[in-house]
């Protein structure tokens, strides 16, 4: 027993644990479902999207002010009366895929302002007879994929305001419009797309007869119509009738179209889809039923199997004013009936190999012709003749290559105003535009051109307003490339090139030009007078070139400019004068993707960039290129203060330099005084020994005594620091032989010997004796240095006689005394420096200091 | 007991994640094709009528999806990815304004889209080897309508 108890305890415990774990896991997820996934508030208080949130009613959080509510992909199951009472202001309610099977009476009772109700993809099983009561403003009701099989029971007869009723993808088998359709007087669009309609009988559409419905679009495409009883559409006026992929095969289509007799329609769309299984082949007489139909526009899509020349495509379309043929496997143009009224003809994605101009010339009333996106269309040899009303010819996006554009191709088409030959292969422009000299608009972009650039081919297009020759491999060599285009307002020629990659005087006659696009033209330079004539120019795009500078002189004439694109060039800065010439009218300026230099030398420009944030486009692409440390930084985030800081550093360093210079100068000037005081401060206070009584013993001729007294003794002994000199006339002891004095007082007591060399010195025997002793003394003791002072001009011959002295002078540095101030200065510095060497300082001298 | 707790946790985790399962389109000796929806909102159904046909320029497919967005315009972008690198890119307009050449063009949110018919590749033939074909359909608002990564192991012989 105890063991069993224990087992059950364990089981209970683990069950409890499981519960806890489950709660832990599930509760947050439930919470998440409620809290983390509320309806998305697209427009505050007005538009909410609760798509796919698994709600089962109008969520409580939706305010009563809501106008648009998307409840699609939820699980509402059924709607009861006053279901939407909490949101009475609703204008749009989307209930797509809400698993609705039941809509009870008065479900939408409170939605008097609702204009759009979408019930797509709910397989409705019960729809109350008063289900849509109260929808007094409803304009659009979408019942696509709602399992509706019959119109009879559809409770919509009271929706007078209804404009669009979409019943696509249902199981409706009969087009018999119930009586209540006469009430739907506002109906503009009625779609039975992809239903099960097989027979249309007389009287089915009677409800449409009674009211004037010129603008009703009736969509019957993707049904499987087997027969239309003639008369079914008699006296019916429609805006548009869609009959694509509605018939099983040729004969059904042929006979059914006969049933359209008496119909009046603005636009009739017939044909197939490229992926529909039952592609109808075109055979003779397919459209013969349309002879009895009055229509403005006929569109035929995705039909194949045309037999060359023998088809009767246009037979019953003679009175139609506009024909569009899209995706037809039409290789040759069909026969054109006499007296055709066709004014507009479009062949898009057909299979022509040659422009069928001869046949098209039979459409005498033709005003607009478009043959586009024909992959095989390469040849244009036939002529459009005598189409006096022809105004627009669009032959773009084919593979045309021809060599005689353009006059010979349009004889007798004097009103041609618009010619589009863009996106073709190769066209040679001969310059002959005589037949089409009233052209206003000529588009040749993305077609390789021969002619423009080399010759003045546009001479006769005096009225042309718009010319696009972008990406046409045009190389502008001739200065007169655009001569004759005196009315031109727009010139687009991006992606071409100019001689020497330079704009010269190419636009001189284009004085009415408003827009000029010369982007991606490899331009390196723009000449001074290029834009002189363009005083009316409003937009200039010169982006994606290689311009290095924005020269104000060049752009100054452009005073009407409102938009200027200079992006993706190699500009480093807009200088002050360039910023000055930008006209006040300028509202868009793009200078992004240039190689800007973000240094303080361009401070004005960088300031200007910050000020003109509204004017400048693509600011995020305006980045610094140099210097390296700011590379890829946004121009507008460049710190202007860093420049001011730099100015102060510059000032600071200048001041510091000046101070240092002054300091050095002072040191230079007071070097010896400073040195002396330094020595004194360092506490070097040895008593001078014998032998160092004098700083120098002066050997000189008695005749130079005056000079020695004045120029040597006075400055040295009286200056700072003071030196003690040994002079024979002053310091020699009386009563002692001269030689002893010379040795004892002179050499032994002095640290240095100063020899004052002059002509007298050389002549004096005592002097030469003293000098000889000095020399030997220097040799023996290695002590006293001989400082030679050469006084002025010394007799060279005498010097040569005194060989020893002459050699000594050659081998040693000596001081020279001259009258020049600067030399004297150097003399004194050198002398003082030598004397200071090895000088020992004593107390008295220190005190003297 | 602890293992069962873990199992519950793992199951719940899988349930909560937005990964869609991988579906098999073809599994033959020399050809395997799998796909997985990369649209977090939904999975879709896809099949190829005859797998061996993918060696040809055009082959028939069937695909079904419930639209979460309108497709007044529809653009397809297909990338061929080998070793994580996009080698080829191909795009085509399936539905253009003013010209709905395919039946489903113009369908609205919530409608059921079913396509059965030929697909013509932008390239001559699909290459041999192991690679991923990433396909994405976007609408006029550049919103993803459907998105799938196809894993292809193709060792078919070409003649």
TrEMBL record, chain A:
Keywords: Cell membrane, Cell projection, Endosome, Glycoprotein, Immunity, Inflammatory response, Innate immunity, Leucine-rich repeat, Membrane, Receptor, Repeat, Signal, Transmembrane, Transmembrane helix, Ubl conjugation
GO cellular component, as recorded: early endosome; lipopolysaccharide receptor complex; plasma membrane; ruffle
Protein name stated in the entry: Toll-like receptor 4
Membrane topology (UniProt): Single-pass type I membrane protein
PROSITE patterns listed in its UniProt record: LRR, TIR
Compartments reported by the entry: Cell membrane; Cell projection, Ruffle; Early endosome
GO terms, molecular function: lipopolysaccharide binding; lipopolysaccharide immune receptor activity; transmembrane signaling receptor activity
InterPro entries per UniProt: Leu-rich_rpt, Leu-rich_rpt_typical-subtyp, LRR_dom_sf, TIR_dom, Toll-like_receptor, Toll_tir_struct_dom_sf
Keyword Transmembrane: yes
Alphabetized Gene3D superfamilies for the sequence: Ribonuclease Inhibitor, Toll/interleukin-1 receptor homology (TIR) domain
Family according to the record: Belongs to the Toll-like receptor family.
Residues passing through the membrane, by range: 650-668
Annotated PANTHER family: TOLL-LIKE RECEPTOR, TOLL-LIKE RECEPTOR 4
Matching SUPFAM superfamilies: L domain-like, Toll/Interleukin receptor TIR domain
UniProt keyword Endoplasmic reticulum present: no
Organism: Falco tinnunculus
GO biological process: defense response to Gram-negative bacterium; detection of lipopolysaccharide; inflammatory response; innate immune response; MyD88-dependent toll-like receptor signaling pathway; toll-like receptor 4 signaling pathway
Short name of one Pfam family: TIR
Automatic annotation (TrEMBL), chain B:
Keyword Transmembrane part of the UniProt annotation: no
Keywords carried by this UniProt record: Signal
Pfam family, one: E1_DerP2_DerF2
Residue ranges of domain MD-2-related lipid-recognition in the record: 35-152
InterPro entries: Ig_E-set, LY86, ML_dom
Signal peptide span: 1-18
BP term (GO), one: innate immune response
PANTHER family: LYMPHOCYTE ANTIGEN 86
UniProt name for this protein: Lymphocyte antigen 86
Organism this protein belongs to: Falco tinnunculus (Common kestrel)
